[in-house]
What we know:
Structural class: alpha/beta
Strand order of the largest sheet: 8-9-7-10-6-11-12-13
Strand content: 15-25%
Amino acid sequence: MNAPFQARAGLRDPFTAFVCDDATADMLRPVAVEHGWSPEKVNKGGLRNAVQSLSVSASPNILFVDLSESADPLNDINALAEVCEPGTLVIAAGQVNDVRLYRDLVASGIHDYLLKPFTVDQLRDTFAHAQAILSGPRGEAQADKPHVMAAVIGVRGGVGASTLATSLAWLLGEKANRSTALLDLDVHFGTGALALDLEPGRGLTDAIENPSRIDGLFIERAMVRANEKLSVLSAEAPINTPLLTDGSAFFQLQEEMRNAFESTVIDLPRHMLIQFPHLVHDAHVAVVVSELTLAATRDTIRILAWLKANAPQTKVVVVANRIPSGGALEISKKDFEQSIERSIDIVFPDDGKIAAQAAKLGKPMAEVASGKMAAPFATLSNMVLSHASEEALADGGPAAPKTLVNSLKSMLSKSKAA
C-alpha cells in the first residue's frame, strides 16, 4: 500500500474496486473502461467485502475502497493492510471531511483519499497518478542504481546531524530521483518526522517490540511517506519507556529497506553506534558531523578511530557544521584537521535564518537553502553517491552513473593516454 514498492504487474489484476452505493459504482465503471480495466471488477460491499475477498485472493495493482459504511476507517484500513500484498496502491473514498483522518490514512499507507461526492475528473486524476507510480522506473532502474546506504553520526548532541540526515534523504529522493528511506534511530527524541511536518506513527516502536513482524508488508505499512520519493520511519517513544532490544530489529529493518528502496539514510545517534555496532557494517558511507569545539574535536577523533577499527570498509565523510562566518572559533579549522589527522570534507556555514525558515515551513534545510548555502548540501549528496558507486565498482557491480564528474575523469584519462 505504498509508492516505493513496485507491483508485479504480470501476476495481478490491474484494478479492483469495492463500493457502497450505485452512484459510485456507475461513476467508476466507465472510468475503468477508459483505462482498459474490466468494469466487472467494480464490486458492491465496501471495505468489509474488500477484506474478505483479498484474504483469499491476490491483491490488484490498484485497489479502490469505499469507507462510507465504516464506523472506524483507520482501524478498518489497518485490517485491510493485513491482507493486502506489498505493492498495491490503495485509493480510499469516504464522507468524513477531517484533515487528521486524511493524514492518519496516508500514514497507514493508502495512496489517496477522495472526499465524497467527488467528480469524474478527480477520479481520473487519482487513477492517472497511481498508474504513473506503478509504471515508474523503480524495478527497471535497480541494476543501474545499486542500493546506497549512508549513516549520519553526530559526534555530540546538538551539532546538527539530524538536520543533515533529513536534508540528505530529501536530496537523494528529490534530486537524485531515488526512492529513499530515512531511518531515525533516536527512538525517544528523534526529529526526522518532525522536521518534515509528519506524525511519526508507531512503526519503529512496533518493530523494536516485535522484530518477528518485520517484513516487506510491515515496512510498507510502517513507513510514513513525506513525498513520492521519500519515506520516514521515526518514533517519539514515551521517555519513561527504556529501549529494550538486542538490535535484531534494526538489522532486519536495514535488510527490508535495502530490498524496498534505492537509498537508505540512517540518523544514527552516537550511543546507538556503541550499543549496536553492526548498524554501520553495511553502510557505504558514514557522514561524521562535528563542530569546531574542543569537546567535538576529542569525540571526532574517537569516532573516527572506532569506524577505522569496526567498519574499515565504510567510506567516511567528515562534516564541520554551523561554522560562523566571522568571530572567534573555539578551535581553528587548521588545528581541528591536525588533531583528527585528516581534512574536513565539507563545511556548512551557520545560517540561523534559513534554519528558522525551514523549521517554520516543515521542510528540510536543503530544500529551503539557496545560493552559497545550497552548495554544501549538493556536495554532500554527490559525495555519498560517488563513494557508494566506487564501492559498487570495487565489488564488481554495475558501472557508476554517468555524471559530470565521471565525464571529466574520463576526459582527463583520455588526454593522459594521448
